[in-house]
Amino acid sequence: MEWRLGKTSKKAEPLKTLQMIATLMLTLVSVGCSGGAFISSKSSVDIELKNSSNNPPNLLVGSKFIYQDSNPSDGKPRKVTMEVDEKKEFEHKQAYWIKVTGKEDSYFNIYDMNLNWIGLFGDGKELESVEPCLQILKWPLKIGEKWDSEYTFRDYSDSSHGVYIHTSKVSVNIRTYEEVKVPAGVFKALRIQVGGATFWYAPSIGWIVKEQTGSDRQMEILELVEYNIPKST
Asked: Which of 74, 75, 129, 226 is the most buried (most CB within 10 A)?
């Protein structure tokens, strides 16, 4: 997750599906949570996060994450697979090329080494890019951390109209650390609010395990159902 977690429209502008956003406030006391149960105390959370969230993970080529749409708008369940295909440069930056495969199409979402989205590649060409990045993750990850991600978005997908360029800003807030249950299991995850979208990032696997967007009437929930991470050599 824009992370573009499971979004299969190549022409979707970043964060259109995430619905540009507002702010939240940190608390570790008994505030309602749609994702899961809070982890016990702030001190234990700090200790647990210290080693796993100081630096971005090294995603291994071949790592695969399969998601399902738990509440599709058309009533038809769908699955989306994201697989780390390779590491190579994009826009002069070292990057992860992650192949996204849905029912009807496939393309590459491209993330920098901090796991922030920087581009979209499909049909043998660059379709979209952002500069410097869409910063949803800021290392080290700290509960209560807030920032604004400012970026320039470029859309190259419609060659007949040239390059569409615009600048934007989105507010991000790491709300808390909690347990979240998805079909793939129960994970301890950082709940990150990006406007109307919420992401749960699990340090144990170095990736997003759940994404929730939309309102009550048009809620879309993507959940991890299966994953495979190769053993490092």
From this structure: 129
Both tokens of residue 142? 């700290």
Q: Are 199 and 180 in contact (CB under 8 A)?
A: no
Which domains are seen in the chain, by residue range? 42-228 (2.40.360)
Indicate the helix (H) or strand (E) that contains 46.
helix 42-52
Six-digit token string for 217 = 């009437």
Q: What is the 3-state secondary structure (H, E, C) of 104-132?
A: CCEEEEEEECCCCEEEEEECCEEEEEEEE
Buried b vs exposed e over 119-154: b needs ≥16 C-beta within 10 Å? bbbbeeebbbbbeebbbbbbeebebeebeebebebb
What is d(CA 114, CA 47) in angstroms, rounded to the nearest whole number? Answer: 22
Which mean pLDDT values do the consecutive 10-residue runs of the chain (233 residues) have?
45 36 23 40 61 86 93 74 97 96 90 96 94 95 95 90 91 96 96 93 95 81 95 77
Token pair listed for 88: 């190579």
Dist. CA 9–CA 11, nearest whole Å: 5
